[in-house]
């Protein structure tokens, strides 16, 4: 019984480290062929297995990921302020993105969209996550545009702090180019945070009508969606309720 989370190394090969991509291209295909049955995180991944590996449809079962019950809306101001202080986020409102710093997560487009729309606002952009492959490019982009005081990198955030981090954000963005499921979207929704996500791969399937979607490669469209969310309290409330 094999679980396949995603085939991102085939769908978006430029986002994967060459050495890892080469290994996965051999190992995953062989594993899928050898498996008696395959679990996929989403219908999107199941479709990829059928299309890219010619896997028989009846050999695959979609088994969705679930969000831990620890993810919930945090309203205790003391707890929220402690997390802000621990990760040096200041008092300003912020747009949040959660995910490892790597090309597939598409932070560069998000940074450019933020710069285009929200530089004249009080908002900061918080990119929470550990350092992955080619993470330096994100730091270089922020430095080259002089955004060091507006784009914040708290690094890896401990599980026990994530609910408070999500709850502190006005908006959670997930502009990933490709996902097998996209668990941060579910975590954010469990914490009552409005979500702006990519309209690609599994993300519309996971978030349904409870998120705003955008082309992850379109800076202007992402910028417009960000502005719409931070400036429209009613829209944020509607998404939170959904």
Concise description?
The chain is α/β, with parallel strands linked by helices and 242 residues long. The chain contains 11 helices and 9 strands. Helix 5 packs across helix 10 (219-231).
Strands, helices and their partners?
Elements: E1 2-4, H1 8-11, H2 18-34, E2 38-40, H3 43-53, E3 60-62, H4 77-86, E4 94-98, H5 107-118, E5 124-128, H6 136-144, E6 151-155, H7 159-168, E7 171-174, H8 183-190, E8 195-198, H9 203-207, E9 212-214, H10 219-231, H11 233-241
Parallel strand pairs: 1-2, 2-3, 4-5, 4-7, 5-6, 7-8, 8-9
Explain this structure:
With 242 residues, the protein is an alpha/beta fold. Helices cover 45% and strands 14% of the residues. The protein has helices at 8-11, 18-34, 43-53, 77-86, 107-118, 136-144, 159-168, 183-190, 203-207, 219-231, 233-241, and strands at residues 2-4, 38-40, 60-62, 94-98, 124-128, 151-155, 171-174, 195-198, 212-214. The strands form 2 sheets. A 6-stranded parallel beta sheet has the order 6-5-4-7-8-9, with helices on both faces. A 3-stranded parallel beta sheet has the order 1-2-3, with helices on one face. Helix 4 packs across helix 7 (159-168) and helix 5 (107-118) crosses helix 10 (219-231). The longest helix has 17 residues, at 18-34. The mean pLDDT is 95.
Approximate strand percentage: 5-15%
Which sheet architecture does the biggest sheet show? Answer: 6 strands, parallel
* Sheet with most strands: strand arrangement: 6-5-4-7-8-9
Return the structural class: alpha/beta
Number of strand elements? 9
Question: Uncertain regions: pLDDT < 50 for 5+ in a row?
Answer: none
How large, in whole angstroms, is the Cα Rg?
18 Å
Mean pLDDT: 95
Along the chain, the helix and strand elements come as: EHHEHEHEHEHEHEHEHEHH
General form: globular
């Amino acid at each position: 019984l094999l679980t396949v989370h995603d085939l991102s190394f085939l769908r978006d090969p430029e986002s994967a480290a060459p050495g890892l991509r080469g290994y996965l291209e051999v190992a995953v295909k062989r594993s899928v062929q050898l498996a008696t049955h395959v679990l996929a995180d989403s219908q999107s991944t199941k479709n990829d297995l059928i299309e890219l590996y010619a896997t028989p449809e009846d050999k695959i079962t979609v088994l969705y990921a679930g969000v831990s019950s620890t993810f919930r809306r945090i309203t205790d101001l003391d707890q929220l302020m402690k997390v802000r202080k621990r990760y040096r986020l200041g008092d300003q409102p912020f747009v949040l993105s959660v995910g490892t710093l790597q090309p597939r997560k598409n932070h560069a487009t998000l940074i450019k969209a933020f710069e285009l729309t929200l530089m004249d606002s009080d908002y900061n952009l918080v990119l929470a996550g550990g350092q992955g492959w080619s993470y330096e490019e994100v730091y270089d982009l922020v430095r080259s545009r002089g955004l060091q005081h507006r784009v914040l990198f708290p690094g890896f955030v401990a599980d026990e702090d994530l609910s408070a981090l999500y709850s502190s954000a006005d908006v959670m963005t997930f502009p990933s180019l490709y996902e097998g499921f996209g668990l941060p979207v579910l975590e954010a929704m469990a914490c009552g945070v409005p979500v702006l996500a990519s309209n690609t791969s599994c993300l519309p399937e996971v978030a349904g009508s409870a998120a705003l979607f955008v082309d992850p490669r379109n800076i202007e469209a992402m910028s417009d969606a960000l502005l719409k969310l931070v400036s429209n309290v009613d829209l944020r409330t509607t998404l939170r309720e959904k």
